[in-house]
Amino acid sequence: MSLNYKIHTQAWPLAKEFRISRGAKTQADVVVLMLTDGKHTAWAESVPYARYGETLASVVAQIEHIMPSVHSELTGGELLTIMPAGAARNVIDCALWDLKAKQAQTNVHTLLSLALKTELNTAQTLSLDAPDKMAKAAGELKTNPLIKIKLDADDILGKMQQIHHSAPNSQFIIDANEAWNIDILTDILPKLVPLNVALIEQPLPSEQDELLTGFKPAIPLCADESCHVAADLKHLQNKFQAVNIKLDKTGGLTEAVNLMQQAKQRGFIIMTGCMVGTSLAMAPAYLIGAYSSFVDLDGPLLLANDRADGFSFNRGCMSSASATLWGRADNKQMMEHLHLI
């Protein structure tokens, strides 16, 4: 059955500037795809990522190019064979899963034989900033069990000491976004152990992964920019202990499930992550979160406002979104959610 579709780009202002080692942003630029078979209407959201050469325009062009080949009977596995991983495939794959659930009058987690948790503990992310400002922000989250810290290579230990002092009972994920080198990593690891650092994401540039071969870190290292799809796992073995699964990297929920299952079989720690987007982008990733040791789906918390019927957050506890948002019931309020139609 052929499908009609609409593509929209949206800019969601952030509550405040969000800075990482590669730069800063003040809004989340997202792509929304709506599909209809004439009876059911489905949708999804993805976030183009400049790190991989993606822009709003390039992702929209990819979607436009492939949509003549997309029909309601197309499976996620078939989509993997006609599109590369990335934000364009993600939004199509997740919209198709939403549509299939509505056509079958069921839900996506049932179609995929996945568990659905009503609550997940998620990290809340601190933007890169001056040490005193990061410490103050950490203090405001001191009751959260898990806080994610964006760092560059400048004054790593000093910042983490102040942050730990402000939130002594929290665990921390450090995300360096490829900003460190092997000497920094080797020197800093043992110093971070007493500061409740539980995981370090992508300390080195992805092209330097080989430097981690056989490296025995005191804190698990998590592949983020180095891990996109299940085929990457062979390369990551014996270098990283964990992988960060993001749907905009895997190119959708179909490959995210495959990556999660194969990573577990290989003994990797699973982390579920996100780009900065609305609850609509978090909804498919939430299903992977049920199988993850670390969850980082706080994208909506970074926004000035989220979509209606989105996730709720309370001291690091993330409650499942309304059934009207994605993947479970007919989205009768979708027009109101989208605002632009």
From TrEMBL:
<dbReference type="Pfam" id="PF02746">
    <property type="entry name" value="MR_MLE_N"/>
</dbReference>
<dbReference type="InterPro" id="IPR029065">
    <property type="entry name" value="Enolase_C-like"/>
</dbReference>
<keyword id="KW-1133">Transmembrane helix</keyword>
<dbReference type="InterPro" id="IPR036849">
    <property type="entry name" value="Enolase-like_C_sf"/>
</dbReference>
<dbReference type="InterPro" id="IPR034603">
    <property type="entry name" value="Dipeptide_epimerase"/>
</dbReference>
<keyword id="KW-0413">Isomerase</keyword>
<protein>
    <recommendedName>
        <fullName>Dipeptide epimerase</fullName>
        <ecNumber>5.1.1.-</ecNumber>
    </recommendedName>
</protein>
<keyword id="KW-0812">Transmembrane</keyword>
<dbReference type="InterPro" id="IPR034593">
    <property type="entry name" value="DgoD-like"/>
</dbReference>
<dbReference type="InterPro" id="IPR013342">
    <property type="entry name" value="Mandelate_racemase_C"/>
</dbReference>
<keyword id="KW-0479">Metal-binding</keyword>
<feature type="domain" description="Mandelate racemase/muconate lactonizing enzyme C-terminal">
    <location>
        <begin position="131"/>
        <end position="222"/>
    </location>
</feature>
<feature type="transmembrane region" description="Helical">
    <location>
        <begin position="268"/>
        <end position="291"/>
    </location>
</feature>
<dbReference type="Pfam" id="PF13378">
    <property type="entry name" value="MR_MLE_C"/>
</dbReference>
<comment type="similarity">
    <text>Belongs to the mandelate racemase/muconate lactonizing enzyme family.</text>
</comment>
<dbReference type="InterPro" id="IPR018110">
    <property type="entry name" value="Mandel_Rmase/mucon_lact_enz_CS"/>
</dbReference>
<dbReference type="InterPro" id="IPR029017">
    <property type="entry name" value="Enolase-like_N"/>
</dbReference>
<keyword id="KW-0460">Magnesium</keyword>
<keyword id="KW-0472">Membrane</keyword>
<dbReference type="InterPro" id="IPR013341">
    <property type="entry name" value="Mandelate_racemase_N_dom"/>
</dbReference>
